[in-house]
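Lab notebook, bench 4. Continuing the backlog of folding jobs that were queued last week. Each job is logged with the same field layout so the records can be merged later without manual cleanup. Today's entry covers ABC transporter permease, a 264-residue chain. Filled in by technician R.K.

JOB TYPE: sequence-to-structure
TARGET: ABC transporter permease
LENGTH: 264
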Amino acid sequence: MNTYIKLYLLLVRTSIRSRMQYRFNFAFGTILAAFIQLSEFLMIAIVLAKFGAVRGWSVHEVGYLFAVMTLSKMLYRTFADEVHHLERYLVEGELDQLLTKPLPVLLSLMPRGFRLMPGELLQGGGILAWALGAMLAGGQVTWWAVPQTLFAVLTGAVVLFAIGLATATCGFWTTRISMLQNMTEDAAQTAARYPLTLYPGWMSGLLLTALPVGLVNYVPALYILRGELGAWVFPLLAAAACLAVLLALRFWKFGISKYQSTGS
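JOB STATUS: finished
OUTPUT FIELD FOLLOWS
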């Protein structure tokens, strides 16, 4: 186990070093990512400023949902971005190279694209600080909301990783997975930036079970911001994150066993 950890950290350092060779591109990409993410939320904020609230959710509460999703996605894509890009490995035959390495395939894959995402961190952290600050000042939440939110971000990252890994595993049969990722990751995460009460019952149920992105931000927000549900939400989130990642890992292991080499 210690050997695996040392090799993993070595691969992470190598990936960071290679990315930092182009510092201008890194800095420009950081600014651009922060601007794009901020502009997305500003569009939401403008609509909420005009109508006041959406199904009883204030602009600060929606900002909280947006920020928690952004930060959870940032953590997932920082440590496992190459899982999201498995299609390239399948199409170009690069996965065959990983199968010959001493590390498990997933452990070899994840650090190859270790991705620093300061733009998303600044944008998500800034919106979260603004939203929680306003709700703290208004007495809606207490300082306990801060550690509770950090816990939600961590468990949310695990849930998003599990969804991403399960989606990527489908590529062992289909090869092309970008269209599937548009539904299971991109569209689902975008939908969960808003209160799930906006959607029909079947859709909100889907976003809490089969594609459980609602567990990332909506469910913890019900307790942290609104006092609904109960403190049992946190062990539920931890258990759901563990179950999701275990199921995804089992599916991944099964998919690897069915992988057909490109022969290139």
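OBSERVATION: Residues 23-51 form the longest helix (29 residues).
SIGNED: R.K.
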